[in-house]
User: What shape does this take?
Amino acid sequence: MMDLTDWHQRNEDYLAAALQVLRSRLAERITILTSPSDQTAQEVTRSLNTSGENAELQQAINTIAVAETVDSPPALLRLSRHLRLSPFEQNVLLLCAAMELDTRIPTLCARAQDAANRPYPTFALALTLFDEAAWEVLSPERPLRYWRLVEIMQSTTQPLITSPLQADERIVNYIKGLNYLDDRLTPLLTPLDPVTLLDLPPSQLAFVDTTLKRLQQCSTGQYPPVIQLLGSDRLSKQLIATHIAASLGLMLYRLPVELLPPPIVELETLARLWQRESILLPIALYLDAYEMDANQTALLQRFLSRSNGLFFVDMHERSSRLGSMTLSLDITKPTINEQQAAWQQALGSAAQASPAVLADQFNLSLSDIQQIAQNSLNEAFHDNSLQQQLWDACLTTTRPQLSSLAQRLDPKATWSAIVLPADALNLLHQITDQVRQRSRVYQEWGFSQRMNRGMGISALFAGESGTGKTMAAEVIANDLHLDLYRIDLSAVVSKYIGETEKNLRRLFDAAEDGGTILFFDEADALFGKRSEVKDSHDRYANIEINYLLQRIEAYRGLAILATNMKSALDTAFLRRLRFIVNFPFPGFVERKAVWQTVFPPETPIAHLDVDRLARFNLTGGSIHNIALNAAFLAAQAGTPVTMPLVLQATRTELCKIERPINETEFFWQEPAKTTI
Assistant: This one.
């Protein structure tokens, strides 16, 4: 195989020989046009046609002839073969490129055209200089203009045949031996570095093997299929695409579809330039189309139809609009066992029990696992710190970007703060335990082999407002040390057809990686009963509910729904829930327990008659409001929280919720002090 340095030297020798032959042709043309009395022309011709020059010219012709037979031809010949230039087109391109490579060419061009104001190549000059001349070579469909190799600098009043011809800068540098990505594409593209390739697990390596076999089946000259990479794991899709490109010896570049220019002319130029680059360089393109809209879909479709090469398209779902020649791969993250092995390898001797725990709870790509492990090992100083840092880093990595659809809650409530009947409390503990043990049951005990849905955990919290539904969700999130997101239904539900499903898809996809508990408050507004179809609005409303039923059942994590109107929920949805926890209106015993713990230990409290306070028929939420308002009254008065202040706050709360007030219940007399 020829050394690169040796090839560059041969390329320089060939280029020098080709330019010498070109100068000789120009000199011959000058001789024909010039009368013997023209002393300047005679000097030019004489300087190019001495006996020494003739010997050098013959040597140059021999150099060109030899270059055409070698396995690694010079850049100009390679370009001509790749882009199928005719000999005449090759000579025209050389003439245009020579303007940048030889300072003598402009003067010779002017003299050869007998026009001092034309120190540049023209099509008229090319027709007189070279053999096998053909008018059609400047057609937009012929290689010179189709591949943007030369540009005709025609003014409005100048004929086409005498207009200046200019070689493309990228092509001039290529002929010179400098092969780099066109600088018009560089601002749009980001290289996906193959140096940082991670070893793929078997489940993802199968996608690489499938794609390589399909590409090998393409016959010579056949366009490769567009490879659609489907699913929500975008890092794994990039890693798989990079592996495929590296196996083919290609450098992979990423282009977001939002950077595709809407003007048709600009899009056409971009497609043509990329197609040209894919011929001149070993490159492939990764099109990031995960969040594209309808307009961007049309632009992407046109771009693909007007270009060629190896394309990977990152999409959420398969599109039939990208052409018939497509290969769709549904990319998923590594399996739990593969993630556990990746954690073990990344953490080494410091792993302990972390790989099993982390792989059980979080669904991460190899890139995420590698990065989290490396950062945590660099920051941790002892084992306990490492385990906590790993968990917190996984939480941060999987934390969804849901600022427009959900509110992240900071769970602070613990099991000691919640007051519920024993059966409801037992169900809450069961929910927590199932989240912790789902890997053992599904994976180790084989239940995942018999189930294709319903492997997530869903629970309904039903009860009046203020009975502790939100607090129970906080308790579970706090105990599991997971993020809790309360869904903003006003942002999710849309009056526009299809938008609600799109928002729900974004919601579940963003939370799918395991570090998030979704809390749907007032779920009856979203999970209501399907109605009889009377018009298109009813039909699409039912479609939304059906989609939601399927999506929440397929959700990998924990989804909690809260409602104070259980009867309004669709019965089919209730059947698919794993748990239904009823939050009853608290009785005297439960209210007393709430009153006993509602004030923080730091709050100064005088004697409170909790038995009397518990007789007020209030929920835990109302009791919390009363305690908070009483604390503010006490702070303003500069006293501890006293019974009169609590009763005053209770009266305010009853008025707010429009409950009847019995004045005798608010009479308070300080208990008499006993003396001995």
User: Anything to note?
Assistant: The chain has five domains: 4-176, 186-330, 339-396, 415-583, 588-666. Residues 4-33 form the longest helix (30 residues). The chain is about 50% helix and 10% strand.
